[in-house]
Amino acid sequence: MSDLVLRMTDVYRVHGSGPTAVRALDGVSLSVQAGELVAVMGPSGSGKSTLLNLAGALDLPTAGVVEIDGQSTSSLRPADLAALRRRRVGVVFQDLNLIPSLTAAENIGLPLELDGRRVSEAHRAAVGALHELGLDELADRYPDQMSGGQQQRVAIARALVGDRRLVLADEPTGALDSLTGEGVLAVLRARCDAGAAGLLVTHEARHAAWADRVVYLRDGRVVDSTEAYSAASMPRARHTPAPSGTSPSPGSSPVAGMPPAPGPSGAVTPPGATASVGAHSESGREG
């Protein structure tokens, strides 16, 4: 199996037609390798969520090609596309999408059951995913018996369960305090280090610092790309120009490189330096 998990080539997503048409994505090219975590940043309306929807085969491009594990999403039949999503793609949605009538473990195990796994096997995998995030006590709780932060972590566990080659996260720490959020990012980073490919949408530079690369979107285009921070590359990221064909329109300016991400005492925290939650936290706050 190829190390290239996600490839997007000259991808457009246009809503509407004629003079009122809106280009949510405008010729985006992006690839993510196995073991790589790529952060996507940009202002509201820049196309970040559209990019994730296309990368996860939740939507199809108007033009261009999106490939997951070498399979073009536009060429698959609906049933095959659904199977690809269940087996290979894990998505953390902004609105969580937990089923109210199912417990946390049942929500997490449902994709595995739909894919033909035995109920007992799916339950064991779900409990394991909860344990990985330190949520053992939530296994038998329903969504309305959890806080917003607990629901978000259950949604993250659902995205990580099973053999997911591609993990997509749209602001996964939005409802979490700083301490818990950094712990979730450590789990996502560890999953990518174990061989998954990850795409993370975030507004916060300190969260993007967990990634290997940071891609900046503006008006549906990739306007800049930088390598994220590591122990060897601090205190500043190394800048690389945007790929050919993805330069911004005349008059627009590339987004400047990120400042170093502060740690708990103002120092830059190297991503991946430790999986300990406490080592990456700031003072607690509700998201």
TrEMBL record:
GO molecular function, one term: ATP binding
Keywords: ATP-binding, Nucleotide-binding, Transport
Source organism, top-level taxon: Bacteria
Positions of the ABC transporter domain: 6-244
Cellular component aspect of the GO annotation: membrane protein complex; plasma membrane
Region described as Disordered: spans on this chain: 228-287
Protein name: ABC transporter ATP-binding protein
